[in-house]
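Quick bug: DMT family permease output formatted oddly.
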Amino acid sequence: MERRQLLLFLLILGTAFWGVSYSVTKMAIGNYSLNVFLFYRFLLAVMVLSIIFWKYVKDINREAIKTGFILAVPMFLGIQLQTVGLKYTDASQCSFIAGLTVIIIPLLKLAIYKTNASLKIWIAALTALTGLFIIAIQDKFTINFGDLFTIAGAFAFAVYLIAVEKHSATKNLLYSIVPMFAFCALFTFFIALTDSTSEWFPQNNTFWMGVIYCALFSTAFMYTVSNISQRYLSAERVAVIYLFEPVFGAIGAFFILGENLSWRLLLGGTLIFSATIISEVNFKSEKLKLLIRKN
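Here's what came back:
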């Protein structure tokens, strides 16, 4: 199996872990502090990755720590905001809205780097926004409080993926993975200290099982594979693969939390997923033209 094919497979596997983590997190947090949950999630990820990547950890220098901090800020914001969103909205809905990252990335690149976006990107963006409108806008044209946090988190994740793409082009990010998660653990620790609902040692097995699952699979595994992949795949392409996550998120919410998959969620999610396909298909490709002619 070629390196790219292996990375694609691992990314898709990671999106399955990530999608299910929405339901696991919502169930694990319950009435407990989400900041304490995230602190333990990041801390355990740091401990595990320090062992796995010890040969990189022992050679960490100031530049690796600086890069880790730069990447940690948007990633922490993305996870923090979307975890807050889970407190106020369904896990399946949160996972679909989070998929907007794939459309936000090229638009942010347009704004930051002044690169010209193609017509298909604008069509994809409009399609995705229509899907978001169908999912998020409630009766009397109000929007769920949790959806606002999820949308903000999608912007933060887009910034994170763009930053990873930029830094992975010039350096080996394996040296920065542990510092990145260490900074995230530090951020959540200080926020948890100010949280009046913080209970540092919950007597609840579901809470701790959620911490273990999210730390190992949707944090350590997913973000490590993502960072390595972006040495060979663009931020846009990685974000497209992330669109498998809402599918697994909806399945997980259905089986784990018993959430209903409403027509609004299915229709809006289909539009967001379609927007992703539109943004990625090369309509000038000779293979695509040949395929169209055969049909």
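Actually, after a second look the formatting is fine. The two ends are 31 Å apart (CA to CA). Closing.
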